[in-house]
Amino acid sequence: MSTLPILSIIIFLPFLGVLLLSIINSSSENGARNLKQTALWVTCLNFSVSIILLINFDKSNPDFQFVEKYYWLSSGISYHLGIDGISILLIILTTFLMPFCILASFESIKTSLKEYLIAFLILETLMIGVFCSLDLVLFYLFFEGGLIPMFLIIGIWGGERRVYSTFKFFLYTLAGSVLMLLAIIAIYMKTGTTDITYLLNYDLEPSLQYIFWLAFFASFAVKVPMWPVHTWLPDAHVEAPTAGSVILAGVLLKMAGYGFIRFSLGMFPIASSYFAPFIFTLSIIAIIYASLVALVQKDMKKLIAYSSVAHMGFVTLGIFTFTLQGIEGAMIQMISHGIVSAALFLCVGVVYDRIHTREIDRYGGLVNRMPIYAFAFMVFIMGSIGLPGTSGFVGEFLVLMSLFSINTYFAVFATTGVVLAAAYSLWLYRKVIFGSLIKDDLQDIMDLTYREMIILFPLVFLTIFFGFYPQPLIDIMEPSTTQLISNITDDLTLVMPSTIERRVY
Amino acid sequence: MSIFIPIVPEFFIFLSAVTLLVVGLFVKNIKLIINLSILALLIAIVLVFMQSIQTVFNNSLVIDEFSKVMKVLILMGSLSAIVMYHSSRKDLNIDLFEFPILILLATIGMMIMVSANDLIAIFIGLELQSLTLYVLAALNRNHLSSSEAGLKYFLLGALSSGLLLFGLSYIYGFTGNTNLNLISTTVTSGNIGLIIGIVFVCSGIAFKVSAVPFHMWTPDVYEGAPTPVTAFFALAPKVAALALAVRFLVVGFGDISFDWQQIIIFLSLASMIFAAFAAIAQKNIKRLMAYSSIGHVGYALIGLACGTAQGISSLIIYLTIYLAMNIGVFAFILSMKNKGDYFENISDLAGLYKTHPYYSLLITIFMFSLAGIPPLAGFFGKFYIFIAAIESNLMLLAIVGILASVISAFYYLRVIKVIYFDENKNSFEGFNSRSLNILINPSAFLILAFCVYPVPLIAISNYAASSFF
Question: What value of ipTM does the predicted structure carry?
Answer without folding.
Answer: 0.89
